[in-house]
Automatic annotation (TrEMBL):
Designated name of the protein: NADH-ubiquinone oxidoreductase chain 2
Membrane-spanning segments: 12-36, 48-66, 86-108, 114-137, 173-196, 208-232, 238-259
InterPro entries given in the database record: Complex_I_Subunit_2, NADH_UbQ_OxRdtase_chain2, ND/Mrp_TM
GO biological process: mitochondrial electron transport, NADH to ubiquinone
A Pfam match: Proton_antipo_M
GO molecular function: NADH dehydrogenase (ubiquinone) activity
Keywords of this entry: Electron transport, Membrane, Mitochondrion, Mitochondrion inner membrane, NAD, Respiratory chain, Translocase, Transmembrane, Transmembrane helix, Transport, Ubiquinone
Function: Core subunit of the mitochondrial membrane respiratory chain NADH dehydrogenase (Complex I) that is believed to belong to the minimal assembly required for catalysis. Complex I functions in the transfer of electrons from NADH to the respiratory chain. The immediate electron acceptor for the enzyme is believed to be ubiquinone.
Organism: Trichonephila clavipes (Golden silk orbweaver)
Catalytic reaction annotation: a ubiquinone + NADH + 5 H(+)(in) = a ubiquinol + NAD(+) + 4 H(+)(out)
Localisation per UniProt entry: Mitochondrion inner membrane
Top-level taxonomy: Eukaryota, Metazoa, Ecdysozoa, Arthropoda, Chelicerata
EC annotation from Swiss-Prot or TrEMBL: 7.1.1.2
């Protein structure tokens, strides 16, 4: 059922079928991540409410056929995937579900909204991407819980994908794949070590692996994250230098967040 939602949206151009695919995706995802713990139930209820409200607004937009359909649809889809400025629900949902569910929410659950957004390209993507990068970088400061920290990191990377989506239909898919690989290494380590906070991470024997993964996500050479961001820079260099400067500034800020985490672990080594 979960896989069928991807096939429905990828295989049709009718807006009703796209909406139906999103609904199937929501229901099947909740059924995959649900268990009877208090925090999980609360997160699932939040996710259900947010997605249902977004789907209702999207259905209204489809049938009202307004002049600014693309703009409103982009805002609604950004809301559904937790991008800035509609990020408020995303960290709290991530903090109440398992690491495996977090990984799915930060990667697979971004694919369908981004795929639909690629059909609705407009200048609004500049604003959404900028806000996502800023929110992700600033929100990561002073986060003690690892799930909330990785949630804000995901919001930052979504900003990159939204901007890339404006210029290239396929480049954002490559970025999402590379980000998923980097995130998987972090999640697997945290899941294996049963780490939920920075204090627990300092006592983990696998913190060196985590530090290298953080440096990779921050874009430090010679890790994978550096080559990914350098590849994006080269492709956007001739398109918009102003946006490129903003991306560099936010990337440096996000790298500082990762570096603070690495340093806090090093002083306890």
């Amino acid at each position: 059922m979960y896989i069928s939602s991807f096939m429905i949206i990828m295989g049709c151009n009718d807006w009703f079928m796209i909406w139906m695919g999103l609904e199937i995706n929501m229901i099947s995802f909740i059924s995959l991540i649900f268990n009877y713990s208090m925090f999980n139930v609360e997160s699932c209820m939040k996710y259900f409410f947010v997605q249902s409200l977004g789907s209702a607004m999207l259905m209204v937009m489809f049938y009202m056929n307004l002049n600014y359909f693309n703009y409103f649809s982009l805002l609604i889809l950004s809301y559904k995937m937790g991008a800035g400025p509609f990020f408020f629900w995303f960290p709290s949902v991530c903090s109440g579900i398992s690491w495996g569910s977090c990984f799915m929410l930060m990667t697979l659950q971004k694919f369908l909204p981004l795929l639909i957004i690629s059909m609705l390209v407009s200048m609004m993507l500049w604003f959404l991407s900028m806000v996502s990068m800023i929110v992700g970088a600033l929100g990561s400061f002073n986060q003690k819980g690892m799930k909330r920290l990785m949630a804000y990191s995901s919001i930052h990377h979504v900003g990159w994908m939204l901007l890339i989506n404006f210029y290239d239909y396929y480049m954002w898919i490559m970025y999402l794949m590379m980000y998923s690989i980097m995130l998987l290494s972090v999640v697997m380590m945290l899941l294996y070590s049963e780490v939920l906070s920075m204090e627990m991470l300092k006592m983990s024997s696998n913190k060196w692996i985590f530090m290298m993964s953080m440096l990779s996500m921050g874009g430090m050479p010679p890790f994978l994250g550096f080559f990914l961001k350098w590849w994006v820079f080269l492709n956007l260099m001739m398109v918009s230098k102003i946006m490129l400067i903003i991306m560099v500034m936010m990337s440096v800020l996000m790298f500082y967040v990762y570096l603070r985490i690495v340093f806090s672990l090093l002083v306890d080594v």
